[in-house]
Amino acid sequence: MTSLYQGLINIIERKITPLAGAVGQQRHVVAIRDGFVSALPFMIIGSFMLVFIFPPFAADSQWGFARGWLDFSLRYRDQLMLPYYLSMGVMTFFISVGIGASLGRHYKLDPVMTGLLAFMGFLLVAAPYQDGKIATDYFSGQGIFTAILTAIYTSEIYALLKRKNITIRLPKEVSTGVARSFEILIPVIVIVATLHPLNLLVASWSGMIIPQAIMHLLQPLVSASDSLPAVLLSVLICQILWFAGIHGALIVTGIMNPFWLTNLAANQAALEAGQALPHTYLMGFWDFYLLIGGVGSTLPLAFLLLRSRAAHLRTIGKMGIVPSFFNINEPILFGMPIIMNPLFFLPFILVPMINAVFAWTATKLGWVAQVVSMAPWTTPAPIGASWAANWAFSPVIMCLFCMALSALIYLPFVKAWERSLLQQEAEASQSAAASGAGLQTP
Amino acid sequence: MYKIMLCCSAGMSTSMLVKKMQDEVANRGLEAEIAAFSATEFDERFACYDVVLLGPQVKYMQESLAAKTVSEGIPVATINMMDYGTMRGDKVLDYALQLIEQKGVA
């Protein structure tokens, strides 16, 4: 067992750590993550509007408060929908500007200009214009992958032209602000001259515009992203990386976000149309069933530690409990420690995977409401789970069940760790007493 | 006046440590500016500080981040796992001051 464990640690250190470093810091992966982070506040508020439009009551409820709300939301549906349409409905705008700006910073270009350039590149291929109207079909979830690709393409072109010094030079007397806006002229021309013909070409060749073609190509991958194997694989990678002390969630969510958002938009569209929600594995599922109190679902662990007989564990528990409510658990991970501690390898990897199987099955059976909204990852897990499912109550129960299960699995391992710590503490105090006695004798 | 920058993925857990370090600074009667940022803000921020300490969970970024600060001569180091977990403001402050002093010598 020990040699097996050592072998595993060796593989992680020699192979996986450098790979994770390379993937996690690859400029496009970083830019995609940044793009989503900058779009997030808009999308959280926008999808919060869904609660006003679809309050958590049965449609035929006769209870006065619920009836009043339902009637209000029906009468003012269009007005209430506006903030939702102009955030979730056009999420690709925020994402493309965010990704462009991040790459702009990376290449030391003007981030605002790079973001706007990315936005224009996206519109060129994703906004067919006819009879004075722009078609908006691909501004939401269906356009995410296109927004990523066009943002990367436009930023790379801008960076390339800048590097090759292909730019319009104005006399020195012209102020830098004006000069900067002229600097972008050639990149704009190049992007229009390449993306627009490409779009026409793809359309005439396949009968689909670019975002449509991209979704067509990616469809198998998008479908596969919402499956139990995808859940288990993503959480396994995250746990193994974190066990090795690498912020695995940063890498996994960076890759999963485009899929989660595409599927979230599909769930919201289904809710709006009054249909069954098609998708299960979304960020709300990840944040509030698999990372309860942070990676490894360690919130129940914080409670266990508070009552530990070992002083060290009690200290960690006291320090870790408050941040744990907000899903920040570095004190527990590094303090116990769990990271690189062979004793905790199994429960740390298994707890979120077992939770995943239960939460997935219960959701598929229709016992637990599906995710349809976005909640900040720092929301306490049971509340966040409810928030993400439009304030349904079943996710709270699911979340509490996952917590109880986690506590049960962690408990024997914590006890074993406590025993070895108590032994150390006893030895330390014995030797301290011995040396203290030694000093006193003349 | 010492200027110390902490950095992790979102700047969340490091900001808890910042609080502890500031308490320690006050205890010792020193003057120091300590702040936590997310890794994405690194490029814009590091130049204003004497030293950058990373949370152990982003140790994998150390090499590439250190490459960016090399011309300014700002050391980038990773905080000891145990000190981070137990939020030992005193030890991390000692570490930061030690790195700043070494820089002064070199």
UniProtKB/TrEMBL annotation, chain A:
User: What are the alphabetically sorted keywords of the record?
Assistant: Cell membrane, Membrane, Sugar transport, Transmembrane, Transmembrane helix, Transport
Checking PROSITE patterns in the record gives: PTS_EIIC_TYPE_3
- Name a GO CC annotation attached to this entry: plasma membrane
Identify the domain of life: Bacteria
Q: How does it sit in the membrane?
A: Multi-pass membrane protein
According to its UniProt record, what is one Pfam family this protein matches?
Answer: PTS_EIIC
GO MF assignments = protein-N(PI)-phosphohistidine-sugar phosphotransferase activity
Q: Which InterPro entries match?
A: PTS_EIIC, PTS_EIIC_3, PTS_IIC_cello, PTS_Sugar-EIIC/EIIB
For the keyword Nucleotidyltransferase, the answer is: no
GO BP? phosphoenolpyruvate-dependent sugar phosphotransferase system
List residues of the PTS EIIC type-3 domain: 12-413
Q: Does this entry carry the keyword Lyase?
A: no
Localization, UniProt:
Cell membrane
Q: Which residues cross the membrane?
A: 36-58, 82-104, 111-129, 141-161, 173-194, 230-256, 288-306, 343-367, 387-411
Ranges in a coiled coil: none
Q: What does this protein do?
A: The phosphoenolpyruvate-dependent sugar phosphotransferase system (PTS), a major carbohydrate active -transport system, catalyzes the phosphorylation of incoming sugar substrates concomitant with their translocation across the cell membrane.
PANTHER family documented for this protein: PTHR33989, PTS SYSTEM N,N'-DIACETYLCHITOBIOSE-SPECIFIC EIIC COMPONENT
Name by which UniProt lists this protein: Permease IIC component
Automatic annotation (TrEMBL), chain B:
For whether the record's keyword set contains Ribosomal protein, the answer is no
GO terms (molecular function) for this protein are:
kinase activity; protein-N(PI)-phosphohistidine-sugar phosphotransferase activity
Tell me the residues on which Phosphocysteine occurs.
C8
Return any one Pfam family short name.
PTS_IIB
The organism's place on the tree of life at top rank = Bacteria
The PTS EIIB type-3 domain covers: 1-106
Q: What does the entry give for GO biological process?
A: phosphoenolpyruvate-dependent sugar phosphotransferase system
- Annotated PROSITE patterns: PTS_EIIB_TYPE_3
**Protein name (database record):** PTS sugar transporter subunit IIB
- The protein's organism comes out as Pantoea alhagi
